[in-house]
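step=predict obj=Hydrogenase maturation protein n=565
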Amino acid sequence: MHILLIASGFNSLTQRVHAELRDRGHTVPVELALPGRSLSEAVHRHAPRLVIAPMLRTAIPREVWASYPCFVVHPGPLGDRGPSSLDWAIQEGAEDWGVTVLQAVEEMDAGDVWATAACTLSPLAKSDLYRNEIADAALSAVLLAVERFASGTHTPLSQSTARTRPYLDQSARRIDWQEDDTATVLRKLRAADSQPGVLDALFGEEWYLHGGHPEDTLRGVPGEPLATRTGALCRATKDGAVWIPELRRRRVPGQPPTFKLPAVSALGSRLPPLPELGAPLFPADGRRTWSDIEYREEDGVGHLSFSFPGGAMSTSQCRRLLDAYEEVRARPTSVLVLGGRRDFFSNGIHLNVIEAADDPAAESWANINAIDDLVEAVMTTDDKLVVAAVPGNAAAGGVMLALAADEVWCRGGAVLNPHYRLMGLYGSEYWTCTLPRRVGAATAARLMHEAFPVSATGALCLGLVDRVVECGADGFAAEVRLLAARLATAPATRARIERKKAEQANTGPLEVFRERELARMRRTFDDPDSSYHALRRAFVRKEKPSRTPLHLSGPAAVPEAEDIS
């Protein structure tokens, strides 16, 4: 079918629906609901058979839903209504939840129901749940709704009873540091991640708090900062403490939009002297303390996991991960698994940190070289097999970090964006070596030019990944452990390692790829008029585009392979 997606932004759920519908042979243009643009005119121009709104913050105009069947994806179970459904569920500690696909009518969330899907909510951040459990349920419901619609025989279910929740504003999100225990503080922080954050006061100023992890060893006066760790701030609760990775200063009227930064960087000179606690690479059993990089060994396999907010990797995060990688690759294991336990793998360089730097061009250069160093270390590991375990979404340099490994194992719900051009970049991370080697020069050119998201199944068909692990987000780490243990004991593994060592000894220098890529990146970074700087600024400050990007709203020509090789 010709299915039009309408959305407030091309976010993770919209990307997943887009990729999965395209996998099934549908034509799937996208139109964004933007200020000053007529959504009605855009829909009529496409003349779709079906309209789907995976993430839409505004009502669908009457002239649209009266002319075309319009399905709205609501992140709540049957009978739930309102703009903050998932926020309320997390803040109140709900364990069972769901997603509903309903037909658009005059009243928001009140139309007939075409499909529902249940899911569970682990005690995790909203953005993590949204990209994983909610996205899994949403996709299941969307595919069922499309199938039912296509049959022409299904009668949707009328809603009889419903509960409409109000918008969850800051008055209900506010943390009472004197009265709220750690569990309550964490629920409030998680329900506001990654937007809108929890508004709070720190050192006489107002800040939005983003993210939260428990700490059960440190203690102090409730609300007081206790320590820092790798850019995060630890604050005391009445019965423990929490780590807050990121802060965003409240916007002053008339000033540019603010954006999230690592808490220590955001506070800058406002932060009084606090102890900097090292991040334990080898976690102690039974302790709950947060660290963004951890290593475990099990059944002769090393597991180096990392989890950075939003999937972005700053210069310092890349260097710390490289230090950890160099330390653990010296361990006597035959298989090393690199990746997270769930959610993002990596999205490449940290655009927010770059934007906040005194010299964004210099920081861009430092960041790309830091991630290149990490990728090179993975590519040149010759005494073991390296597996990239991709539990969730990955983009740009994060995809190329995964491709540096010998094998890429991807959770079935992940979405990959193996391209750079939407940020005005040529790209580095040795992609001109690894991507064509995996998928061929022509497919590499198409992926880079089209700039479309790729589903896990689509990535497997292309050769971009080696294995798709079909499981829920919570089960991915366990599945990877089993598969990696089998790989470590497989009779062929030792021979593969020896073959790999011989092949690397006979392969030409990698510096050729890096130097060629970085020469183009350097020209972009050093040119103040390059589109990268404007695109980065707009992305970081969440500025709306003036129109739907052409590559989403209509077909585009595919270049010859040599255009980007």
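step=describe
The chain has 20 helices and 25 strands.
step=end
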